[in-house]
Sequence to fold (84 residues):
Amino acid sequence: MKENEILREQISEIVKNQLENNDPPETKIIYNQLTNTGYNDFQTRQMIGQCVAVELFEIIKMSKPFDNDRYIKNLKNLPKEPFE
Fold:
């Protein structure tokens, strides 16, 4: 399996766990808001996954700690792409 596919699956699993565990609760809130405005499950999970990817990049490539405030901010700005 290619590295990108592995990473995509891991991000998908993170999103799934956040939704199932309601942790952070903002993930489920934003998920519900997006699906209620017409985005399907796949699209919504992809958007949330982009926010996860931003955090993973900061952790892995930039050696920065997870920034929960930035993550929540990016979630709340969806469907706009996370920029930070």
